[in-house]
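SAM-dependent methyltransferase
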Amino acid sequence: MNKKWYYDDEFWITYGPVMFDRERNRSASYEIDNLIMLADLKPGDAVLDSCCGQGRHSCILADRGMKVTGVDITRPYLKTAEEKRDQLNLDIEFLHQDILDFRRESAYRAAFNLYNSLGYFEDPDDDMIYFKNVYDSLMEGGKFIIECTGKEVLAKDFRDCFWYEYDDFKIMVEYAINLNWTELETRWIFLKDGNETDATFRHRIFSAMELAGLLSGAGFKTIEFFGDYDGIPYDQNAQRLIAIAEK
């Protein structure tokens, strides 16, 4: 893979059926409806879906009355998102752009980064550039909503290897923690029709306090953490890390 490996459309095309399976798509309404309540968003609010992928969250946000901009670097995913938008007759602006380069001064009431879409930049300093761009793109009082697997949750439930079947795929997943718990290495092995596809990628992982430090450094004033979409505390029972940071 090249330096910015996430530019590789073939990678995302190959693994898209597993990342965006039927259950994942069905869960989008539940996720967005709960996040709308947690962030106190209203119909008519302008929102940014950063790393929007195939548009599963963008479409729900638009259906709930939001004015949505979706940004992603993977063109085939955006094509799928645009097809969904058109089928549902929704008004969504989709942009093919690296989120590191996207910034609209005070344009949005909220910005979303969902489904473990943090930590993929080669240079860790780019995380702060991205957060500052989001901060600048929010109006005063705007909120940045992040959903990912926090270090605390990962450590509690860590499995280094498992496999499962999905449609006509057999999938083996291997995980490893690298660099003193700063990086998660993921290896996916797909078996289909006697053929094997193997890919490994890495991304940075964050604890709640590490994420709070980044958000504070970008200028956010108030930061709340939750342990699931229903707003439970981020404690030993947390299922995921949800952060809501206010400008």
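thats it. The mean pLDDT is 94. The chain has two domains: 5-150+207-246, 153-201. bye
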